[in-house]
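hey can u run this one w/ S-adenosylmethionine bound, need the structure tokens asap thx
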Amino acid sequence: MGRTRSHWEDVYAAKSERAVSWYQPHSVRSLELIRTSSPGHTASVVDVGGGASTLIDDLLAQGFADLTVLDIAEAALARSRARLGREAARVSWIVADVTQWRPMRTWDVWHDRAVFHFLTEGAQQDAYIAALMAAVKPGGTVIIATFALDGPEKCSGLPVQRYSPSTLAARLGPAFFLTSGTSERHWTPAETEQRFSYAVLQRRQ
Ligand SMILES: C[S@@+](CC[C@H](N)C(=O)[O-])C[C@H]1O[C@@H](n2cnc3c(N)ncnc32)[C@H](O)[C@@H]1O
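ok here u go:
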């Protein structure tokens, strides 16, 4: 098992859903951005590094029918599947490292909250962008949330690369353009503030 994978499997084995710093009862900002930037419930959505987030539960409840969650940690996806029960069969689940992933299809919306920022080396970022290019339809939407420029320097004990919406757009390159950027103050379960940047981008046709 690779070091990244074992880190995350260990995190999910050791900590409950509500004990992790990134926990949100509902992914309110992400839901709003998916709703306002996608063509509606018919949009296909892939949640990259979705972990045990309830984003997928809420998208199902809102009528989205083509949903995929990818994560490096099988334990994270198992937790979401257990929470969803029979509804889990309506979702595609992929255990993969996004930097090595070769997508077999394309999606209208790529969502990533707090995954890209772990990639601190240029080659890892390039590999993520290659997966993104293979997975998102021309004209499709990319929503990425990272720690903001004034956010924490580490997440889950790992160093992160911090971004503003515009530095994130610059890193993704000319195949995408920034349609909106916002910031968010996330309060962890331990009541520490973490500042996030959310970038919504569109892939050029
Ligand atoms: C900080 S958590 C965020 C989880 C979720 N997006 C949320 O907002 O609740 C980061 C997630 O990314 C996953 N992850 C980390 N590196 C990854 C990689 N290279 N490929 C796929 N998933 C990864 C972890 O297992 C973890 O579930």
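The helical segments are 3-14, 28-37, 55-61, 74-84, 122-135, 165-172. anyway lmk if its weird
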